[in-house]
Design goal:
The complex is a heterodimer. Chain A is an alpha+beta fold. Chain A is built from 2 helices and 5 strands; from the N terminus they run ββααβββ. Chain A has a single domain, classed as Beta-grasp domain (Ubiquitin-like (UB roll), Roll), CATH 3.10.20. Chain A has a 5-stranded mixed beta sheet, with helices on one face. The radius of gyration of chain A is 12 Å and the shape is globular. The relative contact order of chain A is 0.25. Chain B is mainly β. A 4-stranded antiparallel beta sheet of chain B has the order 3-2-1-27, with no helix packed on it. In chain B, strands 4-5-6-7 form a 4-stranded antiparallel beta sheet, with no helix packed on it. The chains are: A alpha+beta, B mainly beta. At the A-B interface, helix 2 of A face loops of B.
Chain lengths: 89, 361
């Protein structure tokens, strides 16, 4: 199952531990995470479900290509990293 | 008189308390995070809106005697296909104006990019006011100081909570008499020097930086506009320019006296392309005759090489009309306990100040 981990910068607002989830795309994987932790969604995605402008998502060492719908495929051994971009501080 | 003051800054929320020795910080919270709005409601609950650079706009509440806890922030519905040409995003950028609704549990939140939201459960859930958001005229709203328009002020008539006025920057003054079910653009008499001449008086083109209403006589509303100061005696329908304002007609903020409709305070700045205190002197302008004349108040304020700018939520007057406070983009904070005649600066160096608000409860 893909692993999803989050920037430690989120820790002062809410818990965001690394989790293993089902999912064939980044969208599906994150939906599993947000089902367990609904408050986390708004920190990562905007109201239309796109990745926030100053949040970065990587699949292993590759940046997410589809920031609007997060349709990038993931394999069971992949790691998804949700990070804060250097912009936006 | 209010003995508590909330100061929201670029780097956190500071809660000051009046003691026998003077004003001092009693609590700091959200250190490192930008604060965009603060409110203490009649039930003693405090609200703080955060404008996180990476993670978006958030809302927190502290019940009286309790600790801070996060609430769901207002959010926009899924953007429908028919709105594909909407020039503004359907996503919350910032909570800009946060006001009590005049009935227990009700709050109003004015936002960038221009959505008005209502809560009837102390912020636990929010509803977008669709009648305003889906108004075709909203497409004519424009950004002012940012890319998107914003509802910076929500005025609730203290005698009738169904009666609302909004200040939109940029988009004029909007009114609803039915708790937001229907809306109309009402302002006549303002002018916009930044528009082509034939559009200067167009109500929707007016950049309303700030509105403030006399609580005792709610038909009296003052406006600090991008191009000057205006006053209305008919709840925002018609406006007269207050030409006596000095030392400059530009500024962001106004505070109306809660009991005296003839009195209001402003913090003027050199006009719009420069935006710093005239001659580097921080002053407060006060009228006590409905805008016919102004006192320029300087006692206790820096009068040499001071470049502090006061933004639209950073001047507050308490319910007595005696205590005032304002904060600045340079981190200045000054408090008056005599209606502005004299000012004192608590011993601190703050981050840039976005919002200053007395807590009455």
């Amino acid at each position: 199952m893909p692993k999803v981990s989050f920037t430690r910068a989120l820790e002062r607002f809410l818990a965001a531990p690394m989790v293993e989830v089902e999912g064939a795309t980044v969208s599906e994987a994150l939906a599993q995470v947000f089902a367990r932790a609904p408050a986390l969604r708004g920190y990562v995605l905007d109201d239309q479900g796109a990745v926030r402008r100053h949040v970065s998502i990587y699949i292993n060492d590759q940046p997410l290509a589809d920031r609007q719908r997060l349709t990038d495929p993931v394999e069971p051994r992949d790691e998804i990293f949700v990070l804060q971009a250097l912009s936006g501080g | 008189m209010a003995d508590r003051l909330h100061v929201g800054t670029r780097k956190g929320l500071f809660e000051l308390v009046r003691t026998r020795k003077g004003w001092d910080v009693a609590e700091t919270r959200f250190l490192g995070d930008p604060i965009s709005a603060v409110l203490v409601d009649a039930d003693g609950a405090a609200y703080a809106a955060l404008d996180l650079g990476h993670f978006g706009a958030k809302l927190w509440r502290r019940d009286k005697g309790g600790d801070w806890a996060e609430l769901p922030a207002p959010s926009f519905p899924e953007k429908p296909a028919e709105a594909k040409d909407d020039p503004h995003p359907w996503s919350l950028v910032k909570i800009w104006g946060l006001e009590p609704g005049g009935v227990p549990g009700r709050l109003w939140a004015g936002t960038i990019p221009g959505g008005l939201f209502r809560s009837d459960d102390r912020g636990a859930s929010w509803t977008l006011i669709e009648s305003l958001w889906r108004s075709p005229e909203r497409a004519k709203w424009g950004g002012a100081g940012g890319d998107q328009p914003g509802i910076s002020v929500v005025l609730v008539d203290p005698k009738n909570p169904a009666d609302l006025r909004l200040g939109v920057s940029t988009g004029g003054v909007w009114a609803s008499g039915d708790t937001g079910r229907t809306w109309s653009l009402i302002n006549q008499g303002m002018y916009a020097e930044y528009m082509p001449p034939e559009l200067a008086g167009d109500p929707i083109s007016q950049d309303v930086h700030c509105l403030s209403r006399c609580a005792a006589q709610p038909n009296v509303i003052w406006c600090q506009h991008h191009n000057g100061v205006f006053r209305s005696e008919d709840a925002g329908a018609t406006w007269s320019e207050v030409k006596a304002i000095r030392p400059a007609k530009f500024g962001f903020v106004v505070a109306a006296h809660p009991n005296d409709p003839q009195t209001a305070w402003f913090v003027p700045a050199t006009k719009d392309e420069k935006r710093y205190p005239v001659d580097g002197k921080v002053v407060v302008a006060r009228t006590r005759d409905g805008g016919k004349s102004f006192d320029v108040l300087t006692k206790g304020l820096p009068q040499k090489h001071a470049y502090d700018l006061t933004l639209r939520h950073a001047l507050s007057v308490d319910a007595s009309g005696e205590r005032l406070a304002f904060g600045t983009t340079s981190g200045g904070l000054w408090i008056s306990e005599d209606g502005g005649d004299t000012w004192m600066a608590p011993e601190m160096r703050l981050p840039p100040v976005a919002v200053v608000r007395f807590a009455e409860y």
